[in-house]
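re: the backbone from monday

yeah here it is again, tokenized this time
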């Protein structure tokens, strides 16, 4: 197996070229084309969102990138190597869609187990485990059996597990599934911090608002084919309309401004007030409630992102 596959672009963290996966029946006849000539490139420090309805090929693509499936045709390169190369696997952190954790192990034991799989020294495992559990807000439950946890708490353990090896590429499959709005915001903030520190994040999610909040670029799959790809802002921008945002005007000033706009545009302009999205409003209400109560309430807050995941500490609010 070659160290660097032919045709791989220098500097790309993930690159596929006409990647195809055909599942066959018992008699080896083509049954389903799950991925159909997929070509994409993900750069270092980028948050890339892989979107599509159920059965569009997202999970199959991720399994190929993880080296769990072999493509029928085409090529995939991860961290400059074939996905099945040990060095490529060493640089990946993966959170699957369902948290498959040993229920009788505690979060501390779970992270210790995965740290040993990566060959980390005992002292590094201990320090990273403590910092990661604090970061995801589970320091208070570090020694409880995971089997007693809610789905949201298990997702937090899974996220910590995905980061124990300080990966260059983090693959997150539905990372906010089962989390409340505060937990969702913490995970999105964490992704942004990781990207600022040079990590590359591949995000697969059905929650389009989450993707819109954090992704630099997205790709939309349908029946295994890439139907749209680009920067989020450019894809969503309405080029045939312009919006102005100004401070509040008096009634007289507003009437004058609207008349002038109508004269130049040839139609009556729409007027409204900027609004928060529901997540922003919810978080503001909860923060005010916490402040009024004089405590952090029942929600565990995330701590600082460990320094070994980058070069500076940043809090996950």
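seq for it, each position gets an aa:
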């Amino acid at each position: 197996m070659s160290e660097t596959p032919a045709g791989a672009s220098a500097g790309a963290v993930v690159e596929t070229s006409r990647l195809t996966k055909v599942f066959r029946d018992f008699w080896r006849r083509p049954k389903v084309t799950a991925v159909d000539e997929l070509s994409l490139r993900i750069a270092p420090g980028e948050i890339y969102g892989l979107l599509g309805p159920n059965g569009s090929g997202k999970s199959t693509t991720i399994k190929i990138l993880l080296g769990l499936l072999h493509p029928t045709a085409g090529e995939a390169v991860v961290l400059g190597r074939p996905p099945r190369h040990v060095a490529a696997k060493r640089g990946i952190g993966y959170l699957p869609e369902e948290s498959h954790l040993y229920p009788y192990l505690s979060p501390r034991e779970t992270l210790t187990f995965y740290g040993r799989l990566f060959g980390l020294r005992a002292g590094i495992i201990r320090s990273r485990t403590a910092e990661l559990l604090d970061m995801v807000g589970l320091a208070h439950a570090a020694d409880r059996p995971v089997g007693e946890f809610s789905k949201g708490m298990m997702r937090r353990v899974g996220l910590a597990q995905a980061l124990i090896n300080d990966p260059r590429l983090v693959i997150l499959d539905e990372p906010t599934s089962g989390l409340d709005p505060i937990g969702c915001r913490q995970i999105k903030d964490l992704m942004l911090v990781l990207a600022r520190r040079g990590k590359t994040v591949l995000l697969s999610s059905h929650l389009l608002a989450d993707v819109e909040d954090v992704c630099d670029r997205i790709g939309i799959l349908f029946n295994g084919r890439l139907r749209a790809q680009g920067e989020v802002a450019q894809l969503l921008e309405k080029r045939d309309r312009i919006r102005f945002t100004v401070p509040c005007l008096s009634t007289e000033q507003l009437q004058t401004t609207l008349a002038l706009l109508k004269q130049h545009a040839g139609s009556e302009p729409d007027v409204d007030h900027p609004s928060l999205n529901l997540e922003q409003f919810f978080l503001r209400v909860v923060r005010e409630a916490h402040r009024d109560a004089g405590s952090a309430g029942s929600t565990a807050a995330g701590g600082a992102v460990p320094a070994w995941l980058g070069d500076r500490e940043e809090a996950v609010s």
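The first strand starts at residue 14 and ends at 24. Residues 181-196 form the longest helix (16 residues).
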